[in-house]
Design goal:
With 259 residues, the protein is mainly beta. It has one domain. Helices cover 7% and strands 52% of the residues. Strand 1 and strand 2 form a beta hairpin. The longest helix is centred in the N-terminal third of the chain and has 17 residues.
């Protein structure tokens, strides 16, 4: 018992001293900062996603039109705890989200289960102020290196199970069928990266080549509800969603450019 306790204390101490905690395995690996950001998510030595964090955006009220509408994590009050269990790491991330004009807008809680085969994310955000949106308030975002997926297959599964399989262009942005309850990207002839909903999740890919940037933005949000006019959510509104990131064999349905 004391040995396990000492290991837990040592793990937290390493996090506070280095500012970064590392999960390492033969499969998935991750770097977690004490501000609550996953600096990198990699697999087999190759970085797949960078700067993963819980964030959001809202429609500013009429009397606060100036400033950004992005609900960003403060970082200063972030609480990060980690617990090692054999080849699995459990991570809890807590922080406050806000804008310049609404600094204390919501509380964010993320629970991660990291293993060699997959990474599971459980997100819960509670509003502290009245917030408005025409689409969705909160989401996770991460940068995706387009060099890993350009010219290869992408699978999208829609809300009702419809499947869209397409090749991501090598020299121009992909713009259609880029959102669904599942996204999968062919990385090579043997492996595909899967992002799949476990509960109430919606994924989208934004190809930065539309603006001359060779980087992709992957969004992992609670299921959105499109509205022509802003919908208001009172303080205490709860948004929850769960999803999994995993690596699978190529024959799971995503074509490679060499097939």
């Amino acid at each position: 018992m004391m040995t396990l306790l000492r290991k837990g204390i040592l793990l937290l101490l390493c996090l506070s001293l280095r500012g970064v905690e590392r999960f390492e395995s033969s499969g998935f690996c991750a770097e977690i900062s004490r501000t609550g950001t996953l600096k990198t998510i990699s697999y087999g030595g190759s970085v797949l996603l960078k700067n993963f964090r819980v964030t959001g955006s809202c429609d500013l009220p009429p009397d606060r039109r100036k400033g950004s509408s992005l609900l960003v994590p403060s970082g200063k009050d972030a609480k990060v705890t980690v617990k090692q269990q054999k080849d699995t790491m459990l991570v809890s991330l807590e922080t406050t989200l806000g804008t310049e004009s609404i600094p204390d807008a919501a509380s964010s809680f993320a629970h991660l289960r990291l293993s060699p085969e997959s990474m599971e994310f459980s997100i819960r955000v509670i509003t502290k102020k009245e917030l408005r949106t025409r689409y969705r308030l909160f989401y996770c975002r991460a940068n995706l290196d387009l060099k890993q997926i350009a010219g290869r297959g992408m699978l999208t599964v829609g809300r009702n199970g419809e499947r869209f399989l397409q090749l991501i262009p090598e020299n121009e942005a992909v713009t259609k069928n880029c959102s669904g309850k599942l996204l999968a990207f062919s990385l090579n002839a043997d492996q595909s990266l899967f992002l799949e909903s476990l509960e109430n999740s919606w994924f989208s890919l934004e190809d930065g080549r539309k603006w001359g940037r060779f980087v992709g933005m992957v969004e992992m949000a609670h299921s959105p509800h499109l509205s022509e006019t802003p919908v208001s959510y009172p303080p205490g509104s709860v948004f929850q969603w769960r999803f999994r990131v995993s690596m699978r064999k190529e024959n799971d349905g995503v074509s490679d450019r060499r097939h």
